[in-house]
Amino acid sequence: MGSPEEARVRLPQLRLDELLEELQARLDAARGTRDRVHSLLEAVLSVGRELDLEQALHRIVEAAAVLVDAEYAALGVIGPDGRGLSAFHTVGVSEEQIASIGPYPEGHGILGELIRHPEPLRLAKISEHPASYGFPAHHPPMNTFLGVPIRARDQVFGNLYLTEKRGGAQFDEEDVSVTLTLAVAAGVAIDNARLYEESRLRERWLRANAEITHSLMSGAERTEVLALIAERAAEITGSALAAVALPMGDSGSLAVEIAVGMDADAHRGLVLPMHSSLMGLAFSGAVPVSSADVGRDDRISLEPPRFGGLGPAVAVPIGTGDAGPRGVVLLARKAGRPVFSAMETEPLNTFAGQAALAMELAERRQDAEEVAVLKDRDRIARDLHDLAIQRLFATGMTLQSAGRFIEHEEAAERVVRAVDDLDETIKIIRSTIFGLRTRDGAEEAGLRARAVRVVGQAAPVIGFAPSVRMEGLLDTDVPKEIADHVVAVLSEALTNIARHAHADRADVLLATDGREVRLSVTDNGVGIPAEGRRSGLRNMAERAEQLGGRLELEKPEGGGATLVWRVPAQKP
């Protein structure tokens, strides 16, 4: 043993070692705190500079996992109803594990506990909490848990979930404090990203509106403009299908005129009821109507099957002013994609309203152009009547008087024929004058105007404008009863071309010589198959037989088909 003197020397030495160790521990703790604060600042800066919302959310999850040394981290975005999760971003779980686990959580169990009570939650063992009811198959084991809410503008945007602190340690109060600080910064970053996303989205809608307005004002066809509306709406909203339906007069139904995207052919041409379909309800109610899963919605008819692989959908009326909607645009996303939120539906509704306004302005411009054309037609008709017919009549009278002084028999016959030709020419001009002065859509419209109207109405359905040629006194030599049959046959023939011919050209010839009316419709499509439904052709043949005429089908040398429908100009 040492002397008392040596013992007194060792005692201060031991105390000094303890003090040095304590000092070193405090220095290490201060250094750790400094490093953690530095990491927190770096995480805040990293999250704050990200403007893309998806990237910002992923960056937040990564930063949270690093700050508290957690093996697994996730950020759940709370859905619009505030009850479940609409999106889930994870770190620490591989793509293979995610695929084997199955669908992302919807917000039940512990995750739902944080949604119902948005306060920090720290657990030593997840399974011991009353709200826990286990994990799905192939889910990695998790015990320790830390969850904190993320608020953006005083609303809970979502929650941060952290599990399995590395080294088997427990999450402590410092972890809670650091995570809460990150959550505050994350809330600001999320709010900024959402504002940036909204501004970009608004800019894209404005550009689309400008493009549609320019197309309408430059004289583009209505079908072309409707297709542009559908394409831009689908592109901006990330939809896999877009369709536009317009009302069918006073029939109480909607007809789908435009469809682009998945299974577009199955939608194009459909006739939908006004009060029991998704698009019909949007039109009749003049408000957007949405569906979480369009493939399982009772408002969607089962036949024909047309929504395979699609999920969320929304139908928005085109225009809701005093005149009511002009149509409906339907957008549908692929199954599994987010539902259409109010933030998306509102600008879409505005876009549709502005598109309707542009369509109305274009119609007003077209009306003004038609008034100018009608005035010009009146002027031409007046000039033909007051000048051309009078001069021809005077010339005929002169020739008829001179014929009495011609002794040569053959010369006299030629003069008589010339007078008859002048009379026939006067009849043709009078028919032309009548056609010029007939207003489109008037009840007293002649066969010429009615035929032109039928061809014009069929053009959007066929996809191109058929050529039309007319010969003879159609408005004077063809009785109204026969003219009604001619119009019906022409409509049926053009409908058959639209449905079956797959043509890109059609020619219509309507002629009369006073004794017979002949309608010829030719296309360059696939021709008339030997087998198949012929109800339309049978109807046209029966109409011809009732009037004492006949229907002929010919095959041109270049392919396609020619339909010739001829009947007497007077009823039998």
Key descriptive features of the protein:
single chain, 572 residues, alpha+beta, six-stranded antiparallel sheet, five-stranded antiparallel sheet, 14 helices, 16 strands, 19% strand
What's the structural blueprint in terms of helices and strands?
Layout: H1 4-48, H2 53-67, E1 70-78, E2 85-91, H3 95-101, H4 109-116, E3 121-123, E4 145-152, E5 155-165, H5 173-217, H6 222-237, E6 241-247, E7 253-261, H7 264-267, E8 271-273, H8 278-285, E9 289-291, E10 310-318, E11 327-334, H9 342-402, H10 409-437, H11 447-462, E12 467-471, H12 474-477, H13 480-501, E13 506-512, E14 516-523, H14 535-546, E15 550-554, E16 561-568
Parallel strand pairs: 12-13
Antiparallel strand pairs: 1-2, 1-5, 3-4, 4-5, 6-7, 6-11, 7-8, 9-10, 10-11, 13-14, 14-16, 15-16
